[in-house]
Every structure is written in C-alpha cells, then in structure tokens.
Design a protein that fits this description.
The chain is α+β, with helices and mostly antiparallel strands and 150 residues long. It contains six helices and four strands; from the N terminus they run ααββαββααα. 63% of the residues lie in helices and 13% in strands.
C-alpha cells in the first residue's frame, strides 16, 4: 500500500498533477449524466439541451446490465436469462460481473436503474487511477502517466 501511495505522492508536482487530472476526469464523467449541455439525439431528431439531468443508462449494453442486475436481485439467482426476450435462457459470458454488481447494489440498497450512472462514474474513475498507477509502476513519468490517465 505504501508503494502505491509513493507512486502518487512522491513529490508536490505529482500530487498536483494527479489531483488536477482526477478532477478533470470526475467533472467530465459526472457532467455526462448530471449537467450535460450540448446536442442530443431524440425520437424527433437532434435537439440542443442545457444543464440536462439524466440519471439513467445511455447505451443498450448499460440497459442490459441494469436488467440483468435487477433480475439477479429480484430472483436471488444468477442472471442466465434474457429479460428482453421473455426471460428465455441464454449463455451469459458476463454472469460473474452482473452477479457481483447485483451484490453491490443489493448491499448498498441502490436501485440499479437510477444508480447505474453513479456505478459507471466510479468504474471510470477506478480505471483511470489504475491506468496512472500501472504507467508509473512501469516507469512512466508523472506527466506521461497523467496524460495516460486522461
């Protein structure tokens, strides 16, 4: 653990760059769901929104993840069915992932539908931090690791 902290905090420039990069990533990932301004695709074509709040999944694979997680929580079973096809059984290669996400959502009492955006934000931040740490561990400079983190 102390070696990981050293990779982040070995000097003041490293701490500052890591913090700034982390905050930029957090702001970008957070604003997608909770404070988005820009062009969106709607059923009627493209539209422009300002400070939009949309705490639900955007992509079809996220909706599948929500439905499989919800199924696992409701039925106390591994998600080996397709909730979008009349609950027909299918070979789910991500059964372990969705079982673990169901466990996390259940333990913390979070609704998968409204909590998926926060889950995606936390996953994105973890991936960026791991990218930074791996880059530093492999001998990358603080600046290069910060850029890789972005």
């Amino acid at each position: 653990m102390s070696h990981i902290l050293y990779l982040i905090t070995n000097n003041k420039k490293s701490i500052a760059l890591f913090t700034i990069t982390f905050l930029v990533i957090f702001f970008e990932l957070f604003s997608i769901h909770y404070n988005y301004s820009g062009t969106v695709a709607t059923i009627n074509g493209q539209d422009t929104v300002s400070h939009s709040f949309y705490p639900y999944p955007y992509y079809s694979d996220e909706w599948v993840g929500v439905s499989l997680t919800e199924y696992a929580i409701q039925h106390h079973a591994v998600p080996m069915i397709n909730p979008f096809d009349n609950n027909k059984p299918f070979a789910n290669p991500l059964v372990v992932f969705y079982s673990l996400t169901a466990l996390l959502f259940f333990i913390f009492g979070i609704n998968p539908l409204t909590g998926w955006a926060l889950f995606a934000l936390i996953n994105g931040l973890i991936i960026c931090i791991l990218t930074y740490l791996i880059s530093r561990k492999l001998g990358g400079s603080v600046f290069a690791s910060g850029i890789a983190m972005l």
